[in-house]
Specification:
Distance between the termini of chain B: 37 Å
Helix content of chain A: 40-55%
Largest sheet of chain B: none
Order of helices and strands of chain A: HHHHHHEEEEEEEEH
Structural class of chain A: alpha+beta
Number of strands of chain A: 8
Radius of gyration of chain A: 23 Å
Helix content of chain B: over 70%
Shape of chain A: elongated
Radius of gyration of chain B: 19 Å
Structural class of chain B: mainly alpha
Number of domains of chain B: 2
Strand order of the largest sheet of chain A: 5-4-3-2-1-8-7-6
Oligomer: heterodimer
Chain lengths: 276, 258
C-alpha cells in the first residue's frame, strides 16, 4: 500500500473511532467546552500545532497533515457529513463524527496555511486570505459554539420582563428587563406588511428600536432581534455570540479571497503528483 | 415625466438589443465593440432603474418585479467583468440570455410588479446574494456540460476550460454563500445555523473545493473523477436551488418564505 493509501486508512480509522464514540456516548458534550475551557483548548491546540509544525516531529503526523490526500479525504468527509445532515434534516453539529471531521479539517487548514505562508508561494495573498479566512470563519463557529446562545422573549406592553426561553424550552432570566413601548407595522397599499418596528424600553430607561434585519447591539456580545409579533406582544430573540468577531473577520477575508480567485483564475499547475 | 413599468418594455428592448450586439461582437473577437455595446446596454437599463427609483422616491426593492430589475442588471455587470478579465467569448451571450429572461418575466408577468416582498426579504443583501448565486449557477452549469461532454467523448481536453469556469463559478458561489451568511447574522442572529438550505450550500461548495484540489494535485490523473465531480456539483446546485424544498426535512427551514 502506498503513502496515499495509508493516509486514507488513517483518516477512515479516525472517523470510525468518532462514530464509535457517538454510539457509546451519544451527543458530543458541547456545553462542557464553554468559556474558558474552549479558549484554553483552542490555545493548547494552536500551540501544540505550532510546535509540531516547527519541530517537524512526529514526522509522520506532519506528513499526514500536509498531505494533498488529506485535503481530499477531509473535504470528502465534510461533504459526506453534510449530506447525511442534508437528507435527515437534524442539526448534527453536536455529533462526534461531525466534531471530529471539523477538528481535523481545522488542523489541516492550520498546517497548510503555515506551510503556504512560510514558503512564500505564488498567489500568496489569495492563498492566505482563503485559507486563513476559512480557518477563522469555521474555527470561530466551531470553538465559539459552546458560548453561542439564543433565547426568545415575549416582550409585552403592560409589564417589563426578564423571562426568556432557550431552543430546548429551558427558562432563563436575562440580565436586563425589557418592555414593549410601541409596535408598528407599515403596510403596502394592498395591506400586506412591509416592515415591522418595535420600540423596546430597556431597564426602564434606555430605548432600542428593533426591525426585521436591523438588530440592536445590547453589548459587545449580545444582540436583540425582532422575530415576530402578536397584537399584544412581540417576540424578541436575545443572541449572545462572543466569537462573532472572529467569524466576521473570517467571512470578509474569505470574500476577499473569492474576489482574488475570480481575478487571478486558475493557479500555476504542476505535473503528476506535484502540488501547486 | 414619471417613468413607470409601462416604459420598461422600451428600455429593456433597447438594452437587450445592445447586450445581444455585444455578445455577437464578442463571438467575432471584437472585444472593444463587445464591451462598448454591453456598457451602452447597461447604461440604458440603469437609466430606467434610476428614473424608476426617482419616481418611486424609494429604492425599487419592494416587489418581486423590482428585484428582477436588479437581477438582470447585475448578471450583465458580472458577465462584463468576467469578459473584461478572462475574455470568454460565450459569457456575454450567456448573461444576455439570463438578463433577457428576467426582463421578459417583468414584461410578460405584470402581476409580479405588485407582488410585495415580506419584511424578511427587505434587505440590502437580498439582490447581491441572489444575483451572484444565479451567475455562479449559470457558469457552473456550463462546467457541468463540459464535464458531461468530456465523459461522453472520453476526452480530457474539456477539463482545462472547465477548470477556468469552476474557478469563476466557485468565486461567485463563495460570495453568494458568504453574503448570505452576513445577511443571516443580521436577520436571525447567526452566520450559519445548519439550516437545510445552508447544509446543501455547504455540500455544493465542498464538492467544488474537492474538484479544485484534485486538479491542483495533479491535472493529468483522475479525469473521470474530475468530470464526475462536475456532475455531482451540478446536482448539488439543483438541490440547493429548489430540490431542498422537496425534502420533508426542509419544511421547517428558515429559508421557506411562503
Amino acid at each position: 500500500m502506498g503513502k496515499s493509501g495509508i493516509y486514507m486508512m488513517v483518516w477512515i480509522a479516525y472517523i470510525a473511532a468518532a462514530c464509535l464514540c457517538q454510539a457509546l456516548f451519544g451527543r458530543f458534550p458541547v456545553d462542557a467546552f464553554a468559556f474558558p475551557v474552549n479558549v484554553a483548548v483552542t490555545l493548547l491546540w494552536a500551540v501544540c500545532s505550532w510546535v509540531v509544525w516547527r519541530e517537524r516531529k512526529p514526522a509522520w503526523l506532519v506528513a499526514l497533515l500536509l498531505s494533498p490526500q488529506t485535503t481530499l479525504v477531509l473535504l470528502a468527509a465534510f461533504v459526506a457529513v453534510c449530506l447525511v445532515q442534508g437528507f435527515c434534516g437534524d442539526r448534527l453539529s453536536s455529533a462526534w463524527w461531525f466534531v471530529a471531521v471539523v477538528a481535523a479539517l481545522l488542523t489541516h487548514l492550520l498546517f497548510v496555511t503555515l506551510r503556504g505562508v512560510r514558503r512564500g508561494r505564488s498567489r500568496l495573498v489569495r492563498f492566505a486570505l482563503i485559507h486563513l479566512g476559512l480557518l477563522l470563519a469555521l474555527g470561530g463557529g466551531f470553538w465559539g459554539a459552546p458560548d453561542t446562545h439564543q433565547w426568545r422573549m415575549a416582550v409585552r406592553e403592560d409589564e417589563p420582563t426578564r423571562e426568556a426561553v432557550d431552543g430546548e424550552g429551558r427558562m432563563a432570566y436575562m440580565g436586563h428587563e425589557l418592555r414593549l413601548e410601541r409596535f408598528s407595522t407599515e403596510t403596502y397599499p394592498d395591506g400586506t406588511p412591509k416592515s415591522h418596528v418595535a420600540e423596546i424600553e430597556i431597564d426602564g430607561g434606555g430605548k432600542a428600536t428593533l426591525a426585521v434585519n436591523h438588530p440592536y447591539a445590547l453589548s459587545w456580545r449580545d444582540d436583540l432581534y425582532l422575530m415576530g409579533s402578536t397584537p399584544h406582544y412581540c417576540i424578541v430573540a436575545w443572541v449572545s455570540q462572543p466569537w462573532k468577531y472572529v467569524q466576521c473577520a473570517g467571512v470578509w477575508m474569505l470574500m476577499a479571497g473569492a474576489v482574488l480567485l475570480f481575478v487571478q483564475g486558475v493557479g500555476r499547475k504542476t505535473t503528476k503528483g506535484g502540488q501547486a | 415625466m414619471m417613468v413607470t413599468w409601462d416604459d420598461f418594455v422600451w428600455f429593456a428592448a433597447a438594452a437587450v438589443a445592445l447586450w445581444a450586439a455585444g455578445a455577437v461582437a464578442a463571438f467575432r473577437r471584437r472585444g472593444g465593440w463587445a464591451m462598448a455595446a454591453t456598457v451602452a446596454g447597461i447604461c440604458v437599463y440603469a437609466a430606467f432603474v434610476a428614473a424608476f427609483w426617482a419616481g418611486l422616491q424609494s429604492p425599487p426593492l419592494r416587489t418581486a418585479g423590482e428585484t428582477r430589475l436588479w437581477y438582470a442588471l447585475f448578471v450583465v455587470v458580472a458577465g462584463l467583468a468576467t469578459y473584461v478579465r478572462w475574455r470568454y467569448r460565450w459569457i456575454l451571450l450567456f448573461t444576455t440570455v439570463m438578463a433577457a429572461v428576467f426582463a421578459a418575466m417583468n414584461i410578460l408577468k405584470p402581476e409580479i410588479h405588485d407582488q410585495t416582498l415580506m419584511p424578511a426579504l427587505q434587505s440590502a443583501w437580498f439582490v447581491p446574494h441572489v444575483t451572484v448565486y444565479m451567475f455562479s449557477y449559470g457558469v457552473l452549469g456550463c462546467a457541468f456540460l463540459l464535464g458531461v461532454a468530456g465523459m461522453v467523448a472520453r476526452s480530457t481536453d474539456y477539463l482545462d476550460t472547465a477548470d477556468s469556469m469552476v474557478y469563476v463559478g466557485t468565486a461567485f458561489l463563495t460570495l453568494g454563500m458568504l453574503s448570505g451568511a452576513l445577511w443571516a447574522k443580521e436577520a436571525w442572529g447567526d452566520y450559519w445555523s445548519w439550516d437545510p438550505k445552508e447544509t446543501w450550500a455547504a455540500v455544493t461548495w465542498g464538492i467544488y473545493l474537492i474538484y479544485i484540489h484534485l486538479r491542483l494535485r495533479s491535472r493529468d490523473s483522475h479525469p473521470r473523477l474530475a468530470a464526475l465531480l462536475l456532475v455531482a456539483g451540478f446536482a448539488g446546485l439543483q438541490m440547493c436551488w429548489y430540490g431542498v424544498g422537496l425534502l420533508p426535512s426542509a419544511q421547517d427551514s428558515l429559508h421557506v418564505y411562503s
